[in-house]
Specification:
Length: 345
């Protein structure tokens, strides 16, 4: 069975919102790609804390690829990396905030990066005078260059926020052509810049490792470490296929539910998907019905029309949705809550 990689949900949500705020993409373009904000986080009462929720890595890749396709700013990755949003911190970022010194935080970050994105990899090399940090992504993932530049920029931004000290790199190598507008590149990475390099790399002063992190709390660090390590175990073990399929169904419903699309995202044939779901004691049809029933009640309580609820749940028409409601509830939902379009002014 193929590997179903997940990433931090709040990180995906943060990128989604930043791309909209920076006018890189429009809501219509996101919806056309099948990306809806309301499906990125599980808001149910029994859901995991937002900081620990996971979504398919496919969503993160799609956002970065949309950004690359629609942006006219060569420095976009740098701009995104400079946005410091504590509300978007997952369990790992929160843990880093309470490490004692930068060196400890970098070691924790490198060992536990899978909590953010298992496909992102950092290499740290210590010399007598310099610390070299290299970032890349798994070879089978099509991350654009701006994603790596965002990571380098974010590292500098986060270190400044956590220490109150701005560090200027000794040198920087980037796997991109030299841009016409150099101002932000030089502002963040210094003037010792090399383009068209074979990797994305920063060199920082060795003394930077000893910089203390302001406001670090040992008690919170120990608590967050325990939470992060438990979360990492779950990530490494991998979610059950049924849970992954359920997440993809939720994401696909408002657009157009397609079994073939879900199979393509999982790199599985229909037969293989059916077989593995059966081994987990469920089926694709059961998962679709379960999720539709859960979402139907929520949407009806929000006051959506029956036609709108039907569209959001991916039914071909309202009459099919009515029949499903009779199976689920034994009756059509309260018309005072969900009125047909024709009855609304």
């Amino acid at each position: 069975m193929g590997k179903h990689t997940s990433v931090s949900a709040v990180a995906v949500l943060d990128l989604h919102d930043l791309l909209l705020a920076l006018n890189v993409v429009s809501a219509q373009q996101l919806h056309a790609a099948g990306i809806y904000r309301e499906t990125l986080l599980d808001q149910r009462a029994n859901a995991a804390p937002l900081q620990e929720q996971r979504v398919s890595e496919t969503l993160l890749l799609m956002l970065w690829q949309l950004a690359e396709r629609h942006s006219t700013q060569p420095e976009l990755g740098l701009i995104i990396g400079q946005q410091y949003n504590p509300a978007a911190h997952g369990v790992l970022a929160s843990w880093l905030r309470h490490c004692r010194r930068v060196g400890e935080a970098l070691a924790v970050f490198q060992r536990n990066i899978a909590l953010m994105n298992p496909s992102e990899r950092w290499t740290l090399s210590e010399g007598q005078r310099a610390l070299t940090l290299t970032v890349d992504f798994a070879a089978d993932r099509a991350y654009p260059q701006i994603a790596a530049e965002r990571s380098l920029s974010a590292l500098l931004c986060w270190s400044a926020e956590m220490t109150g000290t701005t560090v200027t790199p000794l040198s920087c190598e980037l796997m991109r052509p030299r841009p016409q507008q150099m101002e932000l590149f030089e502002q963040l990475f210094g003037r010792n810049l090399r383009f068209n390099a074979d990797r994305n790399r920063l060199q920082l002063p060795r003394a930077f490792l000893d910089t203390p992190i302001t406001g670090a709390n040992d008690y919170l660090r120990q608590m967050l470490q325990a939470r992060a390590q438990e979360a990492l175990k779950q990530v490494e073990q991998g979610c059950s296929l049924s849970r992954t399929v359920s997440r993809l169904i939720r994401q696909s419903l408002p657009n157009k539910l397609s079994l073939d699309h879900i199979c393509a995202q999982l790199h599985l044939s229909r037969q293989t998907l059916y077989r593995h779901l059966k081994q987990e004691g469920t089926s694709y049809t059961e998962l679709v019905n379960q999720i539709r029933r859960e979402l139907a009640q929520t949407l009806i309580e929000q006051g959506l029309t029956m036609e709108r609820v039907s569209e959001q749940l991916g039914f071909k028409d309202a009459s099919t949705f009515y029949r499903a409601c009779r199976r689920w509830y034994g009756a059509v939902p309260n018309s005072r809550i969900a009125k047909p379009e024709s009855s609304r002014s």
